[in-house]
């Protein structure tokens, strides 16, 4: 299905056509080797995209189509089959456009099932280029390229069909660097000039979204952030008129080469203070929620260089922040939500890794950053900063954001996510590799599927307390565990509390632990800490009362402290054999991933909601040798570097139910099998 509001509505006949086509078998490339269906999937060895073109990707049925520009400058359209992970790609241009990611095309699914793409060079000529597939839903064969000659040099493409008008619009940058639009009455077979959206001495950057029926929303800057201390404005177009956010009429939409409209005529959402060279904004993404209300994201440069500077570009662009904004029907609510990190390269000091919104849920988004999103501390891999992809989610519109890595510890940068979704899943695409400039890059395209999580109230009335520590070797538990705790509360109704410890690990303190005596379950993700005697007694009393515990990854050396411990504090080496039921025997190679094998038949018990598909963890294998309690029930086994070890099991310690898994690497928390395993374990321990 097509997720609104990304595309116009489909008729029943069209939906039936999709179903019929999906059932057909036709020639495909040799299948890719078996892959983890919920892990990152390599989709293309060579691709890139800018972010001022939409749609760059479509999710229709069980297929994703996406555009790209290779490092040689070839425009491509690719297909990803979500069922078997086969991919095909078709080159549309070869030698006619230079290497430049700004040349990437926009996509639109026509009512007849054919795919339309429109693209343009990066202000190198006045040609708007377009073509459609020859057959419905089949990117292997395309009509010859056609062109529309516009006044002035052109760039970008944004395609929207308005069902009530029966027209398709293409918004692009045209004469004098102002936004213009073309109109098609035959779904992109031919085009005619529509008019000029803005006319002013500036180069505004717009993002658009449509409800597919009658309205097109946009957000815009005053200009390029190199030259303007940008504000962000919102407006919408409907029935040939332009409006502010509250429905106030601004004026008619131009149908000629002049316009009376400019960005500042519309609703000011973010005030960057045009007179002060700080807090310079740039548009990133806009979407509509299920009620048709707009929400959007943008970046803010906190340390810009002087306006128009092109030489001393190394003097700024090291501190960007991501902001989100939503319209509640009367007002815009906007706030900073995460650190974004540093520029992608000097010269384009406002280029971030980018942020992308869920197309219908304002409480989910993805972004790229080379810093910890809460603290702004650099993410280092072998001493070098690395951009990683994060998934962000919040419990409700007025709740804080929580973050979990989709990529982590990467050898190359991961940038520019695109999010798609339907009723059953999310799909995120991103670029990975080297990005030196918009004309010099070598990037691969990856994708990942996240099925929609089941929501129920099984946790109602149950309190879970997570005890975690933060250090360089504790796998970002300060990010992943609060994120997971939020999901438990949101999706299952648990009352969750996360206690992040503080202080030296030989004299560690868990704030407010004393107030967690009424917790039904304690979850440990601590690494080599000693607690005060009083706090350790609280944990031991929890076990004496027969209450359950869960250990994640480093919990198998949670209280195993090697240094000298000051008076009043104590370790607990026997926590691992006596409670968790095994011994810590070290680790497999740090660079090797773990292949996961089901010991028990999936689909029931603690393995409910899983099936026998390939499953991998980016984390290395924890070794326990033959030390596992013979009464423990092994659930999962890990294979890595020729070694095999239990990695998930349950047992009893006295009257307490105990579950332990050495999984818990940062990217595990965006793997649906791991999330399901943890939810099953929680339900079992509390049963």
Written description of the protein model:
- The protein folds into 2 domains: 12-451, 7 Propeller (Methylamine Dehydrogenase, Chain H), CATH 2.130.10.10; 463-686, Class I glutamine amidotransferase (GATase) domain (Rossmann fold).
- The chain has 5 helices and 44 strands.
- The radius of gyration is 27 Å and the shape is elongated.
- Strand 7 and strand 8 (127-135) form a beta hairpin.
- The strands form 10 sheets. Strands 35-34-36-38-44-43-42-40-41 form a 9-stranded mixed sheet, with helices on both faces. Strands 15, 16, 17, 18, 19 and 20 form a 6-stranded antiparallel sheet that branches. Strands 6, 7, 8, 9 and 10 form a 5-stranded antiparallel sheet that branches.
- It is mainly beta.
- Residues 487-685 form the ThuA-like domain.
- This is BNR-4 repeat-containing protein.
- InterPro entries: Class_I_gatase-like, ThuA-like.
- Keywords: Signal.
Which characteristics define this entry?
single chain; 687 residues; mainly beta; Methylamine Dehydrogenase, Chain H; Rossmann fold; 2 domains; nine-stranded mixed sheet; six-stranded antiparallel sheet; 5 helices; 9% helix; disordered N terminus
């Amino acid at each position: 299905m097509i997720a609104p509001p990304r595309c116009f509505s489909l008729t029943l006949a069209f939906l039936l056509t999709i179903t019929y086509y999906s059932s057909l078998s036709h020639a495909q490339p040799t299948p890719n080797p078996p892959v983890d269906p919920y892990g990152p999937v390599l989709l293309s060895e060579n691709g890139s995209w800018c972010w001022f073109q939409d749609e760059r990707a479509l999710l229709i049925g069980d297929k994703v189509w996406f555009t790209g520009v290779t490092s040689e400058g070839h425009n491509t359209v690719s297909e990803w089959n979500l069922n078997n992970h086969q991919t095909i790609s078709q080159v549309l241009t070869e030698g006619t456009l230079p290497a430049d990611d700004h040349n990437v095309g926009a996509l639109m699914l026509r009512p007849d099932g054919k795919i339309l793409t429109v693209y343009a060079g990066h202000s190198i000529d006045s040609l708007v280029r377009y073509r459609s597939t020859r057959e419905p839903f089949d990117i292997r064969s395309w009509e010859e390229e056609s062109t529309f000659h516009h006044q002035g040099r052109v760039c970008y493409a944004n395609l929207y069909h308005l069902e009530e008008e029966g027209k398709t619009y293409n918004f692009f940058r045209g004469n004098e660097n102002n936004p213009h639009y073309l109109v098609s009455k035959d779904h992109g077979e031919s085009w005619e000039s529509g008019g000029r959206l803005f006319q002013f001495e500036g180069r505004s950057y717009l993002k658009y979204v449509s409800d597919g029926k009658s309205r097109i929303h946009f957000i815009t800057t005053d200009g390029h952030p190199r030259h303007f201390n940008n504000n962000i404005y919102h407006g919408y177009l409907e029935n040939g008129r332009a409006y502010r956010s509250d429905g106030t009429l601004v004026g008619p939409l131009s149908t000629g080469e002049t316009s009376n409209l400019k960005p500042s005529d519309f609703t000011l959402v973010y005030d960057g203070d045009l007179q002060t060279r700080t807090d310079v904004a740039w548009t990133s993404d806009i979407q509509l929620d299920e009620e048709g209300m707009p929400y959007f994201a943008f970046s803010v440069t906190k340390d810009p260089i002087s306006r128009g500077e092109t030489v001393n570009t190394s003097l700024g662009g090291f501190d960007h922040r991501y902001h989100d904004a939503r319209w509640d029907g009367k007002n815009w609510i906007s706030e900073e939500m995460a650190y974004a990190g540093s520029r992608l390269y000097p010269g384009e000091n406002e280029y971030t890794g980018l942020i992308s919104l869920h197309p219908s849920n304002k409480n989910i988004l993805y972004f790229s950053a080379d810093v910890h999103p809460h603290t702004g501390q650099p993410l280092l891999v072998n001493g070098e900063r690395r951009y990683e992809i994060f998934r962000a989610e919040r419990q409700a519109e007025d709740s804080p954001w929580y973050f979990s890595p989709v990529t982590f510890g990467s050898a190359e940068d991961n940038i520019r996510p695109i999010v798609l979704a339907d009723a059953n899943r999310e799909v995120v695409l991103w670029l990975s590799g080297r990005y030196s400039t918009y004309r010099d890059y070598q990037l691969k395209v990856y994708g990942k599927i996240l099925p929609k999580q089941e929501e129920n109230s099984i946790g109602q009335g149950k309190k879970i307390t997570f005890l975690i520590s933060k250090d360089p070797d504790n796998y970002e538990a300060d990010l992943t565990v609060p994120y997971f705790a939020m999901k438990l509360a949101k999706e299952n109704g648990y009352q969750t509390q996360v206690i992040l410890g503080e202080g030296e690990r030989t004299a560690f303190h868990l704030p407010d632990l004393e107030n967690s005596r009424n917790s039904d379950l304690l979850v440990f993700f601590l690494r080599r800490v000693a607690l005060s005697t009083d706090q350790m007694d609280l944990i031991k009393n929890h076990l004496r009362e027969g209450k359950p515990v869960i250990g994640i990854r480093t919990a198998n050396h949670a209280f195993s402290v090697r240094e000298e411990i000051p008076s009043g504090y104590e370790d607990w080496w026997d926590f691992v054999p006596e409670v968790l039921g095994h011994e810590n025997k070290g680790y497999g190679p740090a660079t090797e991933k773990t292949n996961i094998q089901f010991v028990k038949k999936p689909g029931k018990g603690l393995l409910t909601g899983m099936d026998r598909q390939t499953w991998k963890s980016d984390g290395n294998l924890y070794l326990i040798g033959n030390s596992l309690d013979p009464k423990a029930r092994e659930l999962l086994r890990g294979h890595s570097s020729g070694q095999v070890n239990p990695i998930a099991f349950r047992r009893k310690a006295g009257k307490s139910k105990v579950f332990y898994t050495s999984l818990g690497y940062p990217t595990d928390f965006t793997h649906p099998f791991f999330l399901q395993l943890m939810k099953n374990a929680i339900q079992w321990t509390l049963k």
